Amino acid sequence: QVQLVESGGGLVQPGGSLRLSCAASGSIFVINSMAWYRQAPGKQRELVAVIASGGYTNYTDSVLGRFTISRDNAKNTVYLQMNSLKPDDTAVYYCNAGVKSRPWLRTVDYWGKGTLVTVSS
Which 8-state DSSP code applies to residue 16? Predict the structure, then answer.
């Protein structure tokens, strides 16, 4: 089994910044892609940013230029630096990772429990 634990959420004023972290632990042979999703009240969960094992990144249009995803493979950790935050960024942010626990096993998607980000004055 693999566990993902997010941290770094909280209350921030519009225009402020937050840095989310997500650490993976457990039975890990290799982590392929890692990503951040978010779900706002009354809305579907959406992909915010994804980073491949080699460092390729992709972002949803609404966060381009404001959010940066990065990862530390030695620590099995993914980060989301969020700048110029807007009230529309308010959501529960979830970490996702595609993990192979053994070389011969398929990649399995794991999810964290989420961390709440509230952008409000």
Answer: -
